[in-house]
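A note from the maintainers: we've had questions about how concatenated examples are separated. There is no special marker in the raw files; a new sequence line simply starts the next protein. For clarity in this README we add a label.
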Amino acid sequence: MRQNLFFYGLLAIPACFAPLSIDLLVPSLPSLAEDLAARLSDSQLSIYMFILAYGLAPFFWGVLSDRHGRKPLLLCGILLYALMSLACTFAPSIDVLVALRFFQGFAAAAGIVIARAMLRDRYGAEGTTKAISTLYMFLALIPIALPIVGGYLSLFFAWSDFFLSMFVIAIISLLGVAWRIPETLSKPMAQRVAEPELTVGTLTARQILSNKYFLRNTLVNMFAMSGTVLFVGNYSFLSTDTYYTSSQENGYILACFNVALACGIFIIRILVPVFGVANCIRIGVGALTIAWLAVAAVSTSGVPPAILLMAMLMLASFGHGIIMALSPGEALVPFSVGAGKASAIYGCIQSVGAALISYAVALTGPKGLSEVSMAIAACALSATLCFCLIKRARENASSHD
């Protein structure tokens, strides 16, 4: 048991590079824009480009980890993330920062993609959903403190110092993974060439995407994540303009959002044995959609009371936490062969879709609370439609094993 917890803990550090790279920085976005003489949309682009690369990279990391082994690729990804974080520290302009953030996001994807594939290797089809949800329980604790820390540190440090802290954390992670994380792939694909019987089940991207069970879970989380990305990319500006909040208060707002996300992730330990995985995802989608529709409704009639808005935001985050914890494992259940590729495609659709939707909204011009909330509500409704219209029994989906 202790060994398993240590394994999860070491995997969780590189797997959390995305929240580390976003939540720590978001409270300081207004000051970043001011220091680099950047427009609002340009500072938001530093978030969206990170997420875009985070979504494009998984296919690269996943396929190579299937071919050459999990651990070597994980170490390469962590090292690249460390170098890009250090480079961001010295970015002289918003254009350079945005470019470096793209490569930082590309490197950060290695952590979560390879972590999911390692858990699929280690625990098999029956244990994958539980194992990945356990990993997300570790991940859920980390983002709670990050925005609060970021908000307070912004009083004493420049935004560039946050990238230096990302570099230090990456180096610590690199040493931990090199020291204690074992290789989980019994035979990398590169060693299977002489053993045709082992490669018969290799799946193509088309076969993975044609699996309706995979597609349903992937698209539901993609639209749920799109709403969250829209919220994260806009809330610090909207709350400052609407409620006159400070960087520290913005940090607390995001921390509350992340606390609700963590509650959604943790509560599945209670809900799943009672209701089953599919019904728990249904609960998450329902909570997410109801909350974002309510936010859109109250925002169109004026500025809602802050406490009411926070309650609805936390309900939406709670629903996304349930979806986030269960959908990755469920999406990978059908694939005993090519889990790295399936994990990569899942991550690609999730992050690229969320980044493109969010940036498309940003490109349409300045947004107020009502416009942003309506865009997020549309994402939540899309998640509901995907869940209701794409149906596939788990028994049929599991037949690949």
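[label: protein 2]
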Amino acid sequence: MRRQGFTLIEVLVVVAIIALLLAILLPSLTKARQSAKRTLCLSNIKGMETAHWLYMTANNGYLIRVGLMHGVHDDKSEVAWIRSLQQIYKDRLAARSPVDQSPHWPETEGGQGIPVDGKRGFPFRRTSYGVNNFLDADTVPDLTGRHVTWERIEKIPAPSSIVHFLYMVEECDPTNSYYHAGECLAASDHPHVEKWADASDPPVMAATQIEIQAHGGPKWSRESVSNYGFLDGHAESLQFQKVYRDMERNKFDPGLRINYQNR
């Protein structure tokens, strides 16, 4: 007589095989998904750099200004650099990274609408990205002996080596030992790179301002990976140590005279 259906043993064998295949494939799928998001975020930054070159071409080589000063009392979104570039590059310019899970996006933009603690005026996130504060006349650090503003691209000694756009911190983590050393920059569009030098552990301090581990690597470490755009228009996924060691070895300050080789 012909047997109908499967035995319990056969069903269990099939289930075990499926489970094994899933265990093998899921990490690969997760890695592929993360890689795709990193690539899309990198594409966003490249788009910003392209838009910025169009901006400089139309403005005699002047670099775009950040616009959003920390602690403003009103909504300055109309002068934000991201808004200016969007007007140039239109809908091809994305302000939000595909990995951005910040709770500080307004509800009107699909966020949780949680205001940034201590942020006055418009305490919400407008963009995932920010501008290197050395490249704005109002935010450039007043370093002892060499206070220099870099208003035009012609003044920058090596644009291909200078970080321009970066990924701003999504939210301030109270477990970070430097969290209470300053305000939360999750709704700001520029960091304060000069403050990293005062920390005994610069990557941890930097992580209060920018998302240094947005795309992998250990948390708050020199090996943390994020995306960075450069003034010549290219963008890269780099470990934190590739862009910053200390205030005399970094790719943020155009005024450095040494050839930073990440040694």
